[in-house]
Fold Iron-sulfur cluster carrier protein.
Amino acid sequence: MAITEQDLLAALAGVKDPVSSKPLATARSVRNLQVAGDSISFEVQMDYPAKSLVPDLQAQLSAAARSLAGVRSAAVHISSRITAQVAGRGARLIPGVKNIIAVASGKGGVGKSTTAVNLALALSAEGAQVGILDADIYGPSQPMMTGTSGKPETRDGKLMEPKRAMGLQINSIGFLVREEQAMAWRGPMASNALEQLINQTRWQDLDYLVVDMPPGTGDIQLTLAQKVPLTGAVIVTTPQDIALLDAKKGITMFQKVGVPILGIVENMAVHICSHCGHAEHIFGEDGGRRLAQDYEMPYLGALPLALHIRLQADSGRPTVFAEPDGEVARLYKAMARQLASNVARQAGNELPAFPDIIISKDT
Ligand SMILES: Nc1ncnc2c1ncn2[C@@H]1O[C@H](COP(=O)(O)OP(=O)(O)OP(=O)(O)O)[C@@H](O)[C@H]1O
């Protein structure tokens, strides 16, 4: 039986990438087609981690391949290959890190740290190597949210070893200085400390480093956004008018320094009463979605205001870790896949456009 890659791609065309809705199997993503009698096998390589979707996608691809004349069985292997992307500003990469994602908010208390750690855990659950860097000098929450503490160890007296918990590599400004001390720092001191934190940690083979940024849009945030080679930023907001106004300032700040916005997350979108199940839009309705539409930015989704999200995050076992198969974890994982897919779409930005230089003896 002769089956070409073209035949296979035509048969698989109806199976869509769940994020982009484009065909999952393309000339670039399908490889290693093997044909043996009426059995075929092939691999599909995705560019973002999607472990929780693999069984379903495998079944869809296999069924589609079996629609080819003469094919009775089709074995499909799906893998993910995450490449390094950096906003095209010629910024140098940090060793051991492929992509750096800032999680930011224009205003404090909207759930930026909770979102950052749950997104990090969701990316990890989907199969990526993930680190979290807590750069929130005004109130570092990651030690509490990841149940980690103490000064980081060092092997060579230069680089800090990240702490490890729940599969994540973690470093936090909170491991190094007392909160009152950090809050008293003026702009340059704070951004120098944060730069050191990011550059002097021995991150190991990370696909994504999630940076929990200090809330707000002042000098410190602007300097961080400029100095760290960010792949892009996620803006967390509540649907409330005032938070949205601040989120807009956040968007403008990143745009000013050429950092792409990878998505908007609407947190505490609706309160579900834990007794009667009644849904109430305490902070207004759909504000984040409208903000994303107005600014033509990806909307990653909304999370409910739920007591267990707070209790789990505040006790060092964030929801994606504590209830990995629950509804809220499902929401975070869907957001994480879309975010990672948006990171992959930054392709082509990794190198600044240089003109071709031709050296010729004849000129
Ligand atoms: N969706 C949610 N449902 C319930 N509680 C939440 C939710 N998101 C965050 N919280 C809780 O709200 C509080 C503030 O959240 P968090 O610390 O993540 O906000 P932040 O924006 O990072 O704040 P900061 O200004 O300290 O940087 C925390 O106690 C957290 O557990």
About this structure: The first strand starts at residue 30 and ends at 36. The CA atoms of residues 177 and 351 lie 36 Å apart. The domain at 5-80 is CATH 3.30.300.130 (GMP Synthetase; Chain A, domain 3).
